[in-house]
Design brief:
Molybdopterin biosynthesis moeA protein, domain 3, Molybdenum Cofactor Biosythetic Enzyme, Chain A, 4 domains, 6-stranded mixed β-sheet, 6 helices, alpha/beta
Length: 406
């Protein structure tokens, strides 16, 4: 058994430089990580344009408003002016339309009165030069970098990629993650629950966790506790970027995962880490696959994922996430802990009267108590080497996935 910090260091060294890229259409880019830098192919706006519906004018012609000007043409968005403005002239213009040569301001339509025949307009108020006028390149200059490699693409950045003419961009590929739930005791949801059986919750929790970290989960089904079935499932799973096994990594007679992985050519880098829950966790590699053996208890499986698998998936997609670097908050109550282990306990996050985050414990009955996490927002990280952590102590915490809509 090794300390958590040593295990995280081993993991960090093994997940570097494993990123792969692919070309992705814009409509599939949300939350993807950009693998290239992108520069603008144009000035934005690409021409002097009107910021308002109104009349393009020469500001010097309307210094003594109200005044009447001749309307020489109308320009809508998407059209190009055909005439240059001279003294005493105006151009009726719509928002976003290019300004005619000679114009240096726009009078909004609410401050004008158009003649019934449309041939002239009364300007009711004067404007200053450049008023309601968007010069070419005001927002963005051609050749300017708008996004760097490593950017996580959100709706605004995707809109900018469309603006600069990029229908497809290079992104880091989402890792394919095979999830194997092992155990003769497991029953799929919806199937009859016989004596001594439990429902397979881990496959569903892990699949959604993989999706939440932008991986592509593959869930073949329950794998029974026999060497032939498990070996076949492992061989298939090793064709993925990441293989997650739930259960079968402890010390029981049917905990076959370490043996099967070794026989399949997986090099084990650690097995058993001084944490609670998830102590039996295993991490190994092949030349092409990262392998995690997670304990079968649901909270143990979740903690193993959040601490070790989540930063792995992030780094495989080009994000620079340091495993074990978590935010901190102060404990709301004194807490007894296991001195030889780093413990993860469910807590809520609240603001104290100074606005700092405080961790308050929720009812928790151990690593099988998944229901306790329904009311929790974080897992407090209680350090090893002490038997109790005092109220007000500053500790790290691992955020739990939260509903996206509140």
């Amino acid at each position: 058994m090794i300390p958590m910090e040593k295990a995280l260091g081993i993991l960090t060294r093994r997940i570097r430089r494993r990123t792969k890229t692919q070309e992705v259409p814009l409509l599939s880019c949300l939350d993807r990580v950009l693998a290239e830098s992108v520069k603008s192919d144009l000035d934005l706006p690409p021409f002097h344009r009107s910021a308002m519906d109104g009349f393009a004018v020469r500001a010097q012609d309307v210094k003594r408003a109200p005044c009447r000007l001749q309307v020489v043409e109308t320009v809508h968005a998407g059209e190009v002016p055909k005439k240059k403005l001279h003294a005493g002239q105006a151009c009726r213009i719509m928002t976003g339309a290019p300004l005619p040569k000679g114009a240096d301001a726009v009078v909004m339509v609410e401050r004008t009165e158009l003649a019934s025949d449309g041939a002239s307009v009364v300007i009711l108020e004067k404007v200053e030069p450049q008023e309601n006028y968007c010069p070419r390149g005001e927002d963005l200059k051609k050749g300017r970098r708008i996004l760097s490699a490593g950017a996580v693409l959100d709706p605004v950045s995707i809109g900018m990629l469309a603006t600069v003419g990029r229908p497809v961009v290079s992104c880091y590929r989402r890792p394919k993650v095979t999830i194997l739930s092992t155990g003769d005791e497991l029953v799929a949801p919806g199937e009859p629950l016989g004596p001594g059986k439990i429902r397979n919750s881990n496959a569903f929790t892990l699949a959604e966790l993989v999706r939440s970290y932008s991986g592509d989960p593959v869930v073949p089904g329950i794998v029974r506790d026999n060497r032939r079935s498990l070996a076949a499932a492992v061989r298939a799973g090793l064709r993925s970027d990441v293989l997650l096994l739930s259960g079968g990594v402890s010390m029981g007679a049917l905990d076959l995962v370490p043996e099967i992985l070794s026989n399949a050519g997986v090099k084990t880098h650690f097995h058993r880490v001084a944490i609670k829950p998830a102590k039996p966790i295993l991490f190994g590699t092949t030349d092409t696959c990262l392998v995690f053996g997670l304990p079968g208890n649901p909270v143990s499986s979740l903690i193993g994922f959040l601490v070790f698998v989540a930063p792995t998936l992030a780094n495989l997609q080009g994000k620079k996430v340091e495993p074990g670097h978590w935010p901190t908050a102060r404990l709301g109550v004194e807490t007894r802990t296991s001195p030889r282990l780093t413990e993860f306990r469910p807590h809520t996050l609240a603001r104290d009267n100074r606005g700092a985050y405080r961790l308050d414990p929720v009812e928790y009955n151990g690593s099988g108590h998944l229901a306790s996490l329904l009311s929790a927002e974080a897992m407090a990280v209680l350090p090893e080497g002490v038997s109790k952590v005092p109220r007000g102590a500053l500790v790290s915490y691992v955020s739990l996935p939260q509903p996206r809509l509140a």
